[in-house]
Amino acid sequence: MAKQEIGYRANMGTPTLILIFMILCLVTFGMLSLSTAKKRMESGTEECRFCCRVLQGR
């Protein structure tokens, strides 16, 4: 009976580790997406300012 308890505990830990790994992957992907969006917004703002200056002749 002691062998069955050890096997059950090992089976319970594997899905938990997989779930933690998946959550870490999703958090990493979310942070990268947020960083990319922020940089694109900043570059778009700079491009808009440049275009406005060119159109106004400054």
Structure keywords:
58 residues; 1 helix; 95% helix
Describe, in short, the structure shown.
This protein is an all-alpha fold. Helices cover 95% and strands 0% of the residues. The protein has one domain.
* Low-pLDDT runs: none
Structural class by SSE content = mainly alpha
Give the total of beta strands.
0
Main beta-sheet annotation: none
State the helicity in percent bands: over 70%
Give the topology string: H per helix, E per strand: H
General shape:
rod-shaped
N-end to C-end Cα span: 84 Å
Number of domains: 1
Strand content: under 5%
Radius of gyration: 25 Å
Count every helix, treating DSSP H or I runs of 4 or more residues as helices: 1
The whole-number mean of residue pLDDT values reads 82
Could you walk me through the main structural features you see in this protein, from its secondary elements to its overall organization?
By secondary structure, this protein is mainly alpha-helical. It has one domain. It has 1 helix and no strands. The chain has one helix at 2-56. The chain is rod-shaped, with a radius of gyration of 25 Å. The relative contact order is 0.06. The model has no long low-confidence stretch (mean pLDDT 82).
